[in-house]
Amino acid sequence: MTPELIAACTGSTLALAQKYAFYLTATMVEFDITSPARQAAYLAQLGHESGGLQWFHELWGPTDAQKRYEPPGNLAFKLGNTHAGDGRRFAGRGPIQITGRWNYKMIGEKMRLDLENHPELLDDPDNACRSSGAFWAWKGCNTFADSGDFVGLTRRINGGVNGLTDRQARWANAKLALNVAEG
What we know:
Blueprint: H1 3-10, H2 14-30, H3 36-49, H4 64-67, H5 74-79, H6 86-89, H7 101-111, H8 125-138, H9 141-147, H10 150-158, H11 164-177
Helix pairs in contact: 1-2, 1-11, 2-8, 3-9, 3-11, 7-8, 9-10
């Protein structure tokens, strides 16, 4: 996919789209994100999660929300964060923001990388982009994209509907750029 289309679909600058175009295109092929409807949904979600491909590593405060990533606590437990410091160690990475020890472990198994012991491997642009495709496949996101259930897709990725208005705006732009018919 051209950098121009990636920029239009994610809301990124052309320079960032050029930086990641090769990796994102390869990821879409590897994980069967190949129809325009799938690509529009995928790139729109990545655009939101990464701030238009700007943030491939979660900005760490820690904020009050991020403090909930640390054990003990329900969110920490849900994310598989079992040790002090896991919240920061397994903070969001990649354009889809893989977060939590459990998700790093599962995505690592799918990518054949030891992300649980080496989370920094997701700082590599290729691994970062592939992690978003592995997460997309693991969570069955193509099914949501194929049916046009963007709210369901957002819940699958985010666990809720955080940033839904921004996600929908990026999706509308992506569908227009990729000539996805409304249906």
